Amino acid sequence: MRPKDFGAASSTESGDELWRHTQQLRVRYSETDQMGTFYNSRPLEWFECGRSEGFRALGLPYATLEERGLFFPLVEARVEYLGRAQYDDLLEMTSYFSWAGRARLKCRVEIVHAESRKPVVAGHTIHAFTDREGRAIRPPDWFHQLLKSALASSARL
Amino acid sequence: MRPKDFGAASSTESGDELWRHTQQLRVRYSETDQMGTFYNSRPLEWFECGRSEGFRALGLPYATLEERGLFFPLVEARVEYLGRAQYDDLLEMTSYFSWAGRARLKCRVEIVHAESRKPVVAGHTIHAFTDREGRAIRPPDWFHQLLKSALASSARL
Amino acid sequence: MRPKDFGAASSTESGDELWRHTQQLRVRYSETDQMGTFYNSRPLEWFECGRSEGFRALGLPYATLEERGLFFPLVEARVEYLGRAQYDDLLEMTSYFSWAGRARLKCRVEIVHAESRKPVVAGHTIHAFTDREGRAIRPPDWFHQLLKSALASSARL
Amino acid sequence: MRPKDFGAASSTESGDELWRHTQQLRVRYSETDQMGTFYNSRPLEWFECGRSEGFRALGLPYATLEERGLFFPLVEARVEYLGRAQYDDLLEMTSYFSWAGRARLKCRVEIVHAESRKPVVAGHTIHAFTDREGRAIRPPDWFHQLLKSALASSARL
Fold this sequence. Notes:
The structure is a homotetramer.
Chain A: E1 17-26, H1 42-58, H2 62-67, E2 74-81, E3 90-99, E4 105-113, E5 119-127, H3 141-156
Antiparallel strand pairs in A: 1-3, 2-5, 3-4, 4-5
């Protein structure tokens, strides 16, 4: 995994980038299909790895948020398939996090071949906030506070 | 699986519905995640089952098309998550097939709870045509002919 | 799905077959890999579909058992890979249910090509009984009662 | 990923350990199920990552072997489920490679929690050798030569 790469998070307006995270992944054999490239649903699994590592890098591991009763189910996902990638290819994925309105989080993702930089996939997911029972809620104050201080810490680095 | 349900396919203009297909599926245990509902990448796997059965119902099994060297890789996918569905829930999925321009196929999909008709997922995939080596091609004449006569046969039913 | 096929369940001794269930399934595109056959972990997902449908056919849907707080996590799995199967191939899977000792359930499974009867996979899973928190428990009396009367009903059919 | 860990490979007799490889992995969200632990087929996907990295660490990337027309399909798999592991848990997996007879390769695998060392999964897979068309073959001479010199190099490290 590469070092964290945080953009300047000067604002928390909807649409502004809050932070970003870059990591590497290899295409698993189980992720290929008989067309010889990755199966079309795998990018959504990779996007989820990007969110996981992106939140961890910010100091807010997603598992901890779930333990506190905060869940981020998907509202919408979009994937553009830009190039092939085969078993064992080393890919680089960058996730860009921002607000989408006041109660939704957006993760935009770009995946390229790590060496050639040839694009493989672009896309995004949009997330609502829910409690443990799956009821839609506003992102709670404690989350806003945690996010704000995590962004402040990472900006100082 | 429910009987085929073909719309009136009076035209092959881009955007016009060519045919549609409805089928049922049950959420597998392997498709759930720890949030207690289906994992977010599963709908893309279900969409693919819809295309498979939709082509079979039309008399053009997808496996046969691949044997003749015609592949339909995804160019784009979009999923809207509209409601929860749990392990063993019986869902009903309808796939609507149309052209998207002259060289791309679009499959729009709606998934609802089979009994309550509550929406679960909506979305679409857009497909290019490629040969065995993954090179983009125009849909070949034999495919247009096969599709035309399959649509004519199904309209007579 | 084919009709239920119950063996004569004259006993509930460990090792004796309690009931069996046969169903059909098609290899999904998402289940293939670049070797052109099904990926090696898919049979465990199919085995789970066999347990699901086997319990439903007996009148004890697995989802209902989980709602009552009874879970059957795997203790052990074994898969023998006997033949290839490709995307869209129609397979027939038979699951044989028996006790393995007093507190474990065994599901033996055979998968063949539906038409040619050529073997594809054989194997088994062994299941413990746990409560909602994952603690190992003895199968509760209500489960023994339910199973006994379900087997009696199915034997009368 | 941790550094390679090669055992002393003094022999290539059936059953003797040829080499071993240890790596870390995190449980992905997509790998959980509604029981709150990893779904039962995921260990077979992890085992495959262990083989991939194990061969790469030895200097024989599996993708290269496939390019030369050598494939290692599974003949048999066995998984023992020894403990729970949740989303984001950090696991450590060690793969032990040996011959099983003259024409089969065996990979034994142990997975534990990286910190507590509590066992999660143990198991193995047994692999045949086939050509591109899936026909069983003896492991070719060039593979024996490659393996021998790779083992010799790694023993010198």
